[in-house]
User: Which sequence fits this backbone?
């Protein structure tokens, strides 16, 4: 195989990653009839799995973690996939078409990078000796879950999606919870003032000690527990401190290989990287979005699922543009929410709320320059298809959108 192999149909494909994008790509490759050599390199000791259950159903105790796997482990053998577990890719030579992992070098015609993300660490927490956890893997989720019981206290540092989902799971299982958020409201940068208030009220109504505008100045171990020191002089004790301060794309392999990297592996609308036989999908991909007209890296389940499938078809010779609008969801207590669209670097200048916000059954739309750029539904499940159409349309009758007497399904017609 050589750098000149690109024009022909691939006979060997390597997928690097152990998340949903990798698992979906491998599944679709076989569904599409690819019968060549197919190798899947997973750094973790598990076959590919979805991550949302780790902070939602499985963590709260409702769903078994086995349900998170994209395919049962036996599927890979049955479909002649060379599944290598605990095989972290350590070297990539795009020109030679080789990838190294677990002391072995594997050749390929096409390669998919689906290496996902890594959690951002808080050094003062890691150095403290206190019981500290992050949430990214099955093992992380199981460890956190073991502490979530009545009489135990969990401190969550960071009021983003993961932090709030952990808080909800902990309260559901009866643990006491303190959330420490540096901004004035959790999710402020994502949802803005108006909708962030909904989550403030939700968590406080369920007994969370939600503290905003605070910063952590130190952390120490004391009697097997952790003591979190705050910049205002206060402190909080915990049986476990869960740090949720964001994630970063796993780009080390791509960088060392000389691929173009900028907030992820830079790919075009077909998910092709700067080397024509390398593709990227999921959290690690900073993909050009043809509808939005800019590159976009999305860290959510739907993106991993759909990009993995698109990348698989394109590696086999298709030329599909990935133009799906970003989508994510959350489940916290009795609130289920779905969000679609992207506010983008220019932010938003208006929010339209429809429905019963106080009762947490409503829709919301974010506007920039009179154009709808994002929308969501909270506990209004029948509305989501209409929300998608409004956001996809972008330019709608704003007077109709603001009028509660005009049905949402009439706004985007």
Assistant:
């Amino acid at each position: 195989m050589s750098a000149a192999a690109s024009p022909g149909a691939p006979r060997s494909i390597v997928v690097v990653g152990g998340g949903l994008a990798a698992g979906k790509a491998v599944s679709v490759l076989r569904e599409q009839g690819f019968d060549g050599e197919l190798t899947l390199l997973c750094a973790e000791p598990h076959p590919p799995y979805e991550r949302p259950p780790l902070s939602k159903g499985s963590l709260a105790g409702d769903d078994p973690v086995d349900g998170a796997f994209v395919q049962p482990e036996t599927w890979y053998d049955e479909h002649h996939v060379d599944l290598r577990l605990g095989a972290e890719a350590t070297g990539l030579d795009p020109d030679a078409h080789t990838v190294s992992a677990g002391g072995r070098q594997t050749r390929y015609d096409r390669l998919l990078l689906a290496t996902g993300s890594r959690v951002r660490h808080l050094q003062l927490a890691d150095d403290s000796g206190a019981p500290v956890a992050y949430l990214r893997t099955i093992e992380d989720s199981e460890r956190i879950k073991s502490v979530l019981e009545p009489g135990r206290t969990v401190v969550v540092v960071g009021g983003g999606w993961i932090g709030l989902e952990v808080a909800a799971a902990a309260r559901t299982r009866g643990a006491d919870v303190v959330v420490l958020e540096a901004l004035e409201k959790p999710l402020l940068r994502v949802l803005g003032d108006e909708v962030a208030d909904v989550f403030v009220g939700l968590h406080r109504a369920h007994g969370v000690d939600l503290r905003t505008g605070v910063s952590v100045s130190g952390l120490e171990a004391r009697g097997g527990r952790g003591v979190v020191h705050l910049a205002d002089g206060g402190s909080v004790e915990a049986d476990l401190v869960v740090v949720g301060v964001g994630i970063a794309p796993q780009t080390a392999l791509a960088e060392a290989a000389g691929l173009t990297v900028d907030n992820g592996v830079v790919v075009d609308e077909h998910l092709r990287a700067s080397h024509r036989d390398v593709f990227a999908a999921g959290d690690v991909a900073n993909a050009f979005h043809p509808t939005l007209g800019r590159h976009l890296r999305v860290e959510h389940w739907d993106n991993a699922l759909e990009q993995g499938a698109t990348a698989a078809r394109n590696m086999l010779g298709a030329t599909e543009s990935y133009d799906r609008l970003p989508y994510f969801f959350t489940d916290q207590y009795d609130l289920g929410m779905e969000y679609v669209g992207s506010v983008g670097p220019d932010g938003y200048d208006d929010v339209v709320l429809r429905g019963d916000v106080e009762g947490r059954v409503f829709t919301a739309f974010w506007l920039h320059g009179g154009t709808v750029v994002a929308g969501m539904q909270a506990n209004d499940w029948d509305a989501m298809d209409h929300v998608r159409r409004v956001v996809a349309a972008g330019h709608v009758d704003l007077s109709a959108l603001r009028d509660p007497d005009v049905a949402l399904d009439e706004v985007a017609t």
In short: Residues 1-5 have pLDDT under 50 and may be disordered. The chain has three domains: 3-118+247-315, 121-243, 334-411.
